[in-house]
Amino acid sequence: MAITEFDTSLPSIRQVQNLIKQAATVEFKLLTGDFITGRILWQDPNSVCVVDENSRQITISKPAIAYFLAKG
Amino acid sequence: MAITEFDTSLPSIRQVQNLIKQAATVEFKLLTGDFITGRILWQDPNSVCVVDENSRQITISKPAIAYFLAKG
Amino acid sequence: MAITEFDTSLPSIRQVQNLIKQAATVEFKLLTGDFITGRILWQDPNSVCVVDENSRQITISKPAIAYFLAKG
Amino acid sequence: MAITEFDTSLPSIRQVQNLIKQAATVEFKLLTGDFITGRILWQDPNSVCVVDENSRQITISKPAIAYFLAKG
Amino acid sequence: MAITEFDTSLPSIRQVQNLIKQAATVEFKLLTGDFITGRILWQDPNSVCVVDENSRQITISKPAIAYFLAKG
Amino acid sequence: MAITEFDTSLPSIRQVQNLIKQAATVEFKLLTGDFITGRILWQDPNSVCVVDENSRQITISKPAIAYFLAKG
Question: Are C36 and C30 in contact (CB under 8 A)?
């Protein structure tokens, strides 16, 4: 059982896969109020891993994400 | 297993499907205190994708939604 | 699997069904600190739909509810 | 599947059943920062129903409870 | 299904069992910002019960725990 | 059922296993706003145990983690 439904036919999962392929810059707003912006390296049922403009690899817990959007 | 029960016979799922068909403008209040307003493009067990008045596609995590209502 | 246990024999589900039948006015306190007050139209495993005094239909995510009580 | 494990052999469930039998006054601290104090009427996998000193029946979502303790 | 995985072979469950046996003083930091410190009496899939320095038995919801550590 | 998907083939689980092997210093940002920094001792479906610079063993609830990143 995944904490998020990780069925790759789902729009929410496919959307992130496409953002990874496009190497898009994505802005995440977290429940803490933090904004994390960068390129998504990978996703799985628990997390999304982002590399930001300072080349820091940040692993975000999916349940902590309020929303995200592609930038530019 | 879905993080939300994604049975299309459920009122909560049907309601969003109808709002999509109607291209209604919907206001979402998130647990962060953010308001996101726009037209719903799609929903799945994890998320709702909204295009706002600035044509930004915003993917909202369903667990982060406090409430929503159709505007106008 | 429901995000809330939606077994209609449970007191919590029956209680809301009764409040719907009684067309009672119910006050919901959400995790955001918001109060939403109105008549419950329907409930399902994910949400409760309320019509408030301004006739706005507000769909509340059940996980975002802290507590509720019948008014008056 | 219950949002909380509602196995009556569990200490956490039995403890609340005993507090109900004892008609004890219990203080609940919620994730919102609210305190709700009163006598527990019933519990189920989703909620606890409390009657407070103003005879208001308040239904608390179990996931919104931070902690509780018997008073006096 | 437990809200937390209550497999006693897991380090997180065994760790609490050991703290109970040692009658250790443990500090819990909750999502509300509260600190609760005391000796753990029992744990189950839903909760941890602590007796604090004022001999108050406090039942903490496991999902409300941010972190904990043994004191002294 | 794990509160997080604890399949060791998942990137999020493998990543933490690697950080443990590397004895890396990792910074965790929690939903409470707390930062906890240290070396990860172990992880399981519920928690991550970190030893900080004051040699304190801190057990973090995985659902309370907003994000984490390796330092230095």
Answer: yes
Architecture of domain F11-70: Roll (2.30)
CA distance B55 to chain C (A): 24
Instruction: Give this complex's ipTM.
Output: 0.93
User: What is the number of CB-based contacts under 8 A between chain E and chain F?
Assistant: 63
CA-based nearest distance D10→chain C, Å: 18
- The 3-state DSSP class for residue E5 equals coil
Q: Which residue in C33, C4, C71 sits closest to C50, CA to CA? A: C71
The chains in contact with chain A, meaning 3 or more Cβ pairs closer than 8 Å, are: B, F
Cα dihedral: E20, E23, E25, E29 (round 10) = 10
pLDDT digits (tens, 9 = 90+) for A26-56: 999 999 999 999 999 999 999 999 999 999 9
Q: Is beta strand E25-30 parallel, antiparallel or unpaired with respect to A65-70? A: unpaired
Question: Which residues of chain E have a Cβ shorter than 8 Å from any chain D Cβ?
Answer: 1-3, 6, 30-32, 34, 36, 42, 44-47, 49, 56-61, 63-64
pLDDT tens per residue, range C14-64: 999 999 999 999 999 999 999 999 999 999 999 999 999 999 999 999 999
**Minimal-distance CA residue of chain C relative to D47:** C12
Q: Is the pLDDT of residue E45 over 50?
A: yes
Q: Choose the closest CB to E67 out of F2, F42, F64.
A: F64
| C-alpha pair distances (Å), C19 with each of C27, C39, C51 | 11, 8, 13
Closest C-alpha among D29, E6, E58, C49 to residue B16: C49
3-state secondary structure chain C: CCCCCCCCCCHHHHHHHHHHHCCCEEEEEECCCCEEEEEEEEECCCEEEEEECCCCEEEEEHHHEEEEEECC
